[in-house]
């Protein structure tokens, strides 16, 4: 079972805040919205978040002051948003502990790419290491298949590319957009279920040959990850 990433959005512009909140909810985030720095600080004191989207120009306590207060307590990733675009503003943001800087106006596609990258980076820092590779498991690149204890899984070429791509990234969650480009060689659209079908097929074929120690798991709002499991 996966849980929705918790995201704090601090933005005083009503229209932008509403549009971003609706978009992020559709992407599977659990969103808390605040209209100023004081509300944002209280929210951060009450709950832990996976990501903070923070406008700089806020009434009362501005975004940089909120960021400075936050960094005294938490290491949650923070993406600053601002129409201030000069180099010094960006440097100040990074100096005070920002992880990324998104200049306004921005597209939702760029927002998605940057939020996904930050969440992947945090997942890489927090993930436990995969167990050593099972000596009975072999990736046969020439045959485009995987074998366990000498038994072939019977993967298709696309299924093999999916499994080896996840394996090469060592437990890092990979977004659906990334997997569609690198595995299925096409652009991801929300109505396209092709990747999900391949994931189900690989899971079934790995189980059929007894490769219990590798499982593909869904990560809500991020994509898929290959994890090592202890033997039951």
Automatic annotation (TrEMBL):
Span of domain OmpR/PhoB-type: 128-228
Record localization: Cytoplasm
CDD domains: trans_reg_C
Any single biological process term in GO: regulation of DNA-templated transcription
GO cellular component, one term: protein-DNA complex
InterPro entries found in the cross-reference section: CheY-like_superfamily (IPR011006), OmpR/PhoB-type_DNA-bd (IPR001867), Sig_transdc_resp-reg_receiver (IPR001789), WalR-like (IPR039420), WH-like_DNA-bd_sf (IPR036388)
Coarse class of the protein's main subcellular location: cytoplasm
Pfam families: Response_reg, Trans_reg_C
PTM sites of type 4-aspartylphosphate: 55
Listed Gene3D superfamilies: 3.40.50.2300, 6.10.250.690, Winged helix-like DNA-binding domain superfamily/Winged helix DNA-binding domain
Residues annotated to bind DNA: 128-228
UniProt domain Response regulatory: residue ranges: 6-119
Coiled coil location: none
Designated name of the protein: DNA-binding response regulator
Native organism: Pseudomonas fragi
